[in-house]
Amino acid sequence: MDNNSWIYFVRDISQLQEKLRSTLSDHHYKSLRQAQTNSNQRLNQKIKGSQKRKFELLSKHTNRESTQRPTGHNSKTVINLSSRTLAPNEATLLAKGLNYIPTQNKIPRDDFVSAIEKGLQQLTPGGNVDYIRHQISDILIKAPKQKPNITQEERTAIKNLCSDNTITIAPADKGRAAVILEKNKFNQLVNDMLNNTTYRQITKDPTPKLEREFRAKLKALQNSNEIDIQLYRKLNTTHPRAPYARATIKVHKNPIKARLLICSRGTVHYYTAQYLTKLLTPLGKTSKSYVKDSAEFCNKIKDILGTAQLISYDVIDLFTNIPREESLDIIRQKLNSGQHPLNTAMKPDSIISLLDSCMHSTYFTWGDDIYKQLHGLPMGSPLSPLISEIHMTEFENKALAASPIKPMCWFRKVDDTFVALTKTDNPQSLLDHLNTQNNRIQFTMEQECNKTIPFLDVLISKRNDKLLTSVYRKPTHSDQYMNYHSNQPNRIKRGIISTLTKRALQISSINLSEEINHLKTAFTTQNQYPPQLVERKISKTLNPVNKTRATRPDHPNIYI
Fold first, then answer.
1. Are the C-beta atoms of residues 233 and 352 closer than 8 Å to each other?
2. pLDDT digits over 39-97, tens only?
3. Is the Cα dihedral 39, 40, 43, 45 positive or negative?
């Protein structure tokens, strides 16, 4: 029924109701309407019951099929390097991904309330906040039980894997695979990294001392009117914790190695590092080599001739080798020059003082032990990528100015550099020149192979004296993103489809259809997304329709 037919239908019904109201007495008219309402309710309940029975039968049939179908995992999603033989239900569970979240038997109401309470405290105290608090509690109490998204056999597998003290399960450094190792082997890989010249074990947790000193520094800035009370509260971390490390496994290396990742959220300097990163971002975008993302990189290289030599120079362990004092001097010079005005009342010396505190906080915990990073920038700090960008911009400007070889182009993203040289240039000579500039900043080199070279997530290919681009995946890539049945918001799952489709559209000057087909297969097969959802989201992303959202002035936006 189209819109016009529906309008006429509603109008006819209204006219019939008016005729009945004028013909029948009020008593008979009300009795008739009540009988009609009861009939509609019975019909509604009958239809709901029928649909519920069909759904239950379908669910039983689906569950029966799911237990009989192949596990669907491959060697790229589950890498077992231990002596333990994984049971089929254990392998199936791990193949879902280490980011897979099972549904819970009951909603953790206390966790929800404690998490929401912090946000409520920022609202104006009063009855409205109490009303919101009671409404949230009421919703949590009445919330229906979630349907399980793993089988009972997989729940058993979780218990068995967690109770096995001889193995460790860690994520792969590249590709999102689950890596199973003997615990002794895993600990040895981490200890090999911690016992080198980059780290030193310390005996005392410096968090309380750092908190006192940094709070005094922020208070002095407030007293001098360089920051206001709101900014002071934003930068001051209450009840800070120590940064902690976790390890991923570099399965693409031979022999395999561990890589440390530091989480600094909620630490003494975390919120200040976030603020300074946003404040100083303009200083990191001044270089001609700066590349915002893969899409901008593809746009920058489209006019480069395909006759050039394509080289990639990568910095070894960038963050742990950036000189701190030299970086602070570079930033101080930029602030004092006045060429990049910042939106702050703080003096350059005060900004440098805050930077110094953040950059020298390089300790972290690993288990019960505490370690300190001896040189370089703190891993896990929001500031480190920006300071690395600022330092590397200064480094490459000086190095290229003094280089006997002048590249046709030089583009860099953090520690990865894409370079085009003429046919007569010697890439090894440029590498040797770069590695003599600073004994801590050392590069490796990768040359094009079969007229192709990867950079970031882009594969650059030479064809007919032109550079063409397509999406690049490393050999260890597992096509594992987020399993559709994981207990996470559907908007995030839909967003992953849209994001990867946009990336394909922005990067691929060739092989776009092959990339789209690859995404469809990866989502439906490896990540168990409904094919209709994948088709719909990809189609909407490839063919966007501009829609003007209607506004309703009588219903203003509500922010909580």
1. no
2. 767 766 766 666 666 555 555 444 443 333 333 344 689 999 999 999 999 999 999 99
3. negative
Is residue 350 within 8 Å of 226, Cβ to Cβ?
yes
Do residue 420 and residue 378 come from a single domain?
yes
**163-174: per-residue pLDDT in tens?**
999 999 999 998
Parent domain of 99: 78-171
Q: How many domains does the chain have?
A: 4
353 in the same domain as 278: yes
Same domain for 213 and 309?
yes
The C-alpha atoms of residue 197 and residue 440 are separated, in whole angstroms, by 13
Q: What is the CA radius of gyration of the chain?
A: 30
| Tokens representing residue 473 in the block | 């995946």
Query: Which pLDDT tens digit goes with each residue over 472-507?
Result: 998 888 899 999 999 999 999 999 999 999 999 999
Please list, in sequence order, all residues whose beta carbon lies within 8 angstroms of the beta carbon of residue 529, skipping any fewer than 6 positions away. Answer: 484, 493, 497, 523
Q: Which residues contact 97 (CB under 8 A, 6 or more apart)?
A: 77, 176, 178, 480, 482, 483, 486
Taking the C-alpha atoms of residue 357 and residue 210, their distance in angstroms, rounded to an integer, is: 9
Q: How many CA atoms within 13 Å lie on the side-chain side of 56?
A: 6
**Whether the predicted pLDDT of 522 surpasses 50:** yes
DSSP 429-490: HHHHHHTTS-SS--EEEEE-BTTEEEETTEEEEEETTEEEEEE---TT-------TTSSS-H
